[in-house]
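#onboarding

Welcome to the new folks! Below is a worked example of what a typical request in this channel looks like: someone posts a single protein sequence, and someone else replies with the predicted structure as tokens. Don't worry about understanding the tokens yet, we'll cover that in week two.

Example request:
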Amino acid sequence: MADHQEASVALPSEPVSVSAARSYVDRVLGEWGPVADTDFTDSVRLIVSELATNAVQHTFGQSPTFTVDLRLEREGQLYLGVTDSHPRWPRRLPAAVQQDNGRGMVIIRTLAKECGGRLTVSPTADGGKTVWIALPWSVPVQS
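Example response:
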């Protein structure tokens, strides 16, 4: 058995790609092993939706595509990353009561923490960034 499994997809930075990213992650995780914890899968779906939405909305047309990367380590760690080529890193915005957006990173951080995971951001060679979520994976890794 390999030490890890990987999957990746590049999608256009368009609103329709948010649901495509979520469907892709659902399919890959289902191939890697049945996840019985629906709270976990719901959290992963929401995390990928928020990350993909950020990649579409907050790159201001400067990132024509974004990439969703999944990596499952044999030790039971799932990494979910969304990469875009826009140089601005995500930041927490003050969320006023009437504000309709600006809370995505707070939601992502909270969900990751509730699942026992963490959020990191790393630069890419082309000046963009990848937002990584590391989560514990309790399903036995299939070969």
